[in-house]
Amino acid sequence: MSTAKLSLDGKEYELPVITGTEGEVAVDVRKLRAQSGAITFDPGYGNTGSCKSNITFIDGEKGILRYRGYPIEDLAGKVPFARVAYLLIHGDLPSEQEARTWRRELTQNSLVHEGMLKFFDSFPVTAHPMNILASMVSSMSSFYPHDAELEDDEHIRANILRLLGQVKSIAAFSYKKSIGQRYMYPLSDHSYAANFLRMMFATPTEFYAVPKVLEDALDMLLVLHADHEQNCSTSTVRMVGSSGANLYASMSAGVNALWGPLHGGANQAVLEMLEEIRKDGGDYKKFVAMAKDKNNPFKLFGFGHRVYKNFDPRATLLRKASDAVLNELGVEDPLLDIAKQLEEVALNDEYFLERKLYPNVDFYSGIIYRAMGIPTDMFTVMFTIGRMPGWIAHWLEMRKDPGGRIHRPRQIYVGPNLRKYEK
Ligand code: ACO
User: Fold this and answer.
1) Verdict on whether the full-model pTM lies above 0.85
2) Would you call 362 a catalytic residue per the annotation?
3) Which helix (H) or strand (E) segment is 3 a member of?
4) How far apart are CA 232 and CA 240, in angstroms?
5) For 42-98, what is each residue's pLDDT tens digit?
6) Whether 392 contacts 385, CB under 8 Å
7) What residues does ligand 1 touch, defined as CB less than 6 Å away?
C-alpha cells in the first residue's frame, strides 16, 4: 500500500492511500486527528470520501455513470426499471425466473395499508406531494414490523418490497386525492412503470390501455434516476441509517433531502423557471444575464452539477428521448422551445464554459414529465420513485459494512471564546 506524507508544524505524518477498482485515489485521514490533533476541513464534502462502495461508479470528467459495472447507456431504455432495481439492491441482474418472482412480489406489495389511506384525507389540498410522500414513508414504520430488522434479513427483504411496491402507489394516490378521484389499484401483468401510469391516469369507468410510448419513457426516466452514488439524499439516507434508524425512517429522510431545489427539486424549478421566462415575454437572454450577475442570487435551474464537469450522461440520453417522446405524442410545447434556446445560449457562453456548467438530468426530465401529463409538483416525486432502489442499496451496504460507524463529522469552532455568565 502506498502512503502520503503530510507535514504540519514541523512534524511529518504518514497517511495510508486507498485506491478504488477504477483507479480513484484517496488519502485515508481516519487516524490524522489522533496522531496530530488536526482535522480535515471540507465544507459541503466536495473532496471527502465518506465510504467505500461497490454500487455506482461516476467519472464526472469523462461523463461516465455505471450501476454495478454496467454503463447507463446499456441499461436506460433497454433493461426494465424493476430489473435495474434488482441489480442495484442484489448486485447482479436477475435471471428470468428471479425477474418474474421479483416483479410479482413488487406488485403484491404495492397495496397501501388500509390504515394509512386515512392519512391522505388529513393533508390540506395545498400539501406538496413530496411532503405527503415523506410522511407516508415515515409512517410505514408504525404499520409494518421492523423491530427485528437489525438482525433479520427476511424482515428487511419484506420491508424493501413494501417500500418499492408502495412508493409509486402513495405517489399516485396523492395525485388522485388532489383531483378528487378514486384510487386505482395496480395489475399483476403490468410492468412497474405501466402500473404507475395506470394508478395515475386510469379511472374506474373507462378502460385504460397504458400508452407504450409513455411506459417506455417513464421506464427510462426511472432507470436514469435509480442511483447516483453519494449525492445529498443518498448521503442523508446513509447518515440517518448509520445511527441504526430503520429502513423507513432512513428513506423518509432521503425523500426530504431530495425535495430541495438544488437537488431533486430542480426538475420542478426548471419548469417554473421556463414558465416564468414565457410569461415575461420569452426573453431567455435576460435570465442568462441574471444567472451570470454576481449580485443576483438567481441560478439557471437545470444547469451545473457537483460531479459532472463535462456532460451529464443522463442528460445526453434524455435530450434524445425528449425529442422522440414529444414527436410521438405530437406535443408542441412553447416551453420546450425556450429550453432549447436557453441550452444553446448557455452552451456557447463564456461564463458557463469556464465553470463547466452543462444541462443536467433535471433540465430535460421535467419537459418529458410535462408532455406525459404529470403535474409539475409531482416531478420530484417521480425522481424519488426512481431513486428508491439506489437509497435501499446504499442503506444495505452501509448496514453490512463491518467497519461502519455512526456518521459524525467534526467542525472548526469559530464562535466566542469562554465568556463569564453574570446574573
Ligand atoms: N447558474 C448560474 N451559475 C451557476 C450555476 C447555475 N445553475 N451553477 C453553478 N454556478 C456558478 C456558481 O455561482 C459558481 O460561480 P463562481 O465560481 O463565479 O462563484 C460556479 O458556477 C461553481 O458553482 P458551485 O456552486 O460551486 O457548484 P456546486 O458544485 O456547489 O453546485 C449545483 C452544484 C448545486 C448543482 C449548482 O450548479 C446549482 O445550483 N445548479 C442549479 C440547480 C440544479 O439544477 N440542481 C440539480 C442538480 S442535479 C441533481 O441533483 C439530480
Assistant:
1) yes
2) yes
3) strand 3-8
4) 12
5) 999 999 999 999 999 999 999 999 999 999 999 999 999 999 999 999 999 999 999
6) no
7) 262-264, 266, 291, 299-306, 355, 357, 360-362
